[in-house]
Specification:
Elements lengths: L2 H18 L5 H6 L6 H10 L6 E5 L5 H8 L3 E6 L2 H14 L4 E4 L14 E6 L10 H11 E12 L1 H4 L23 E4 L16 E4 L4 H10 L2 E9 L11 E3 L5 E3 L9 E8 L3
Helix pairs in contact: 1-5, 6-8
């Protein structure tokens, strides 16, 4: 099975359910013109001033983080391979009165629809890299999109977390799945989603994912001409990754209920493209 086709069908089917979900809180964006997504809000102190920056949000899904960057003053373009997700993103932007452009493409085909060297900032949110089979190709794409001196900013699920078997009922942390990148995908068959979709029954239940070690990610960026300027690991993530073993804080972040210092759940990374 082709992973791109499998995953596109998976995301196309979930786009409208995600837009209707309380987890994405579309109504909050429409009610409050200053409302930001939890993902962008978490990293706002690290993100810095993005006003006026030409920004591309890779793997933007239904556009809540994209709209949040726009509200912080960035000139944003969103890119995603799911036409159904882009339809929801465009509708959110329209209803919010936000001037955001969206383009349909896989990440690896971004240069077919976007101009090389045109961006001050490449942004990627949580839960994106795991759908890409080749982290080096991703880093090369990011580098070509950026102008010299431009930066990449990403918050992502930690590869150690992706390797954990979260279905265990005993609360033990067991590393069951690959930490390092492998050529063959992990194949999942799951009927639900990571946010509450009010009992929607999905038919495209199969998805393919790929893990990438933290060293592999950093090495890929260095090899593509970017220099690391920040790498911060977090003991929390914005969803309940291990039901029954986590607690939620007032910001909507989840961490292990017992000794959360044992496990990194997400990380924030920033890198700048070299001037030469």
């Amino acid at each position: 099975m082709d992973s791109v086709q499998v995953n596109r069908a998976h995301w196309d089917e979930r786009a409208s359910a995600h837009a209707a979900s309380r987890g994405y809180n579309i109504q909050g964006f429409l009610d409050d013109p200053e409302y930001l997504s939890e993902v962008v809000r978490f990293d706002r102190p690290r993100l810095g001033d993005v006003r006026g920056l030409r920004t591309v949000h890779l793997q933007c899904h239904i556009g809540t983080d994209t709209l949040s960057l726009h509200r912080l003053g960035a000139q944003v373009t969103g890119l995603d391979f799911s036409p159904a997700s882009l339809a929801e993103a465009r509708e959110l932007a329209r209803r919010a009165g936000a001037d955001i452009g969206y383009v349909e493409s896989e990440v690896y085909g971004a240069l077919d629809v976007l101009e090389a060297g045109a961006f001050d900032l490449v942004y990627t949110g949580v839960g994106a890299l795991c759908w890409l089979p080749d982290i080096r190709r991703w880093a090369e794409t990011v580098s070509v999109l950026l102008r010299p001196g431009g930066r990449l900013f990403i918050r992502e699920g930690h590869p150690t977390m992706w390797a954990v078997d979260e279905t265990r009922k005993d609360g033990l942390i067991a590393l069951e799945f690959p930490y390092f990148e492998r050529p063959d995908p992990l194949v999942w068959d799951e009927g639900g989603s990571y946010v509450d979709t009010d009992g929607v029954q999905f038919t495209n239940t199969v998805s393919h994912s790929f893990n990438h070690g933290l060293g592999e990610i950093v090495t890929a960026l260095l090899g593509a001409g970017l220099d690391l300027t920040m790498l911060e690991e977090h003991d929390s993530c914005p969803w309940d990754f291990y039901p029954g073993a986590t607690v939620e804080d007032e910001q909507g972040e989840h961490r292990l209920a017992e000794r959360p210092e044992r496990l990194p759940l997400t990380y924030t990374l920033q890198a700048r493209k070299r001037n030469v």
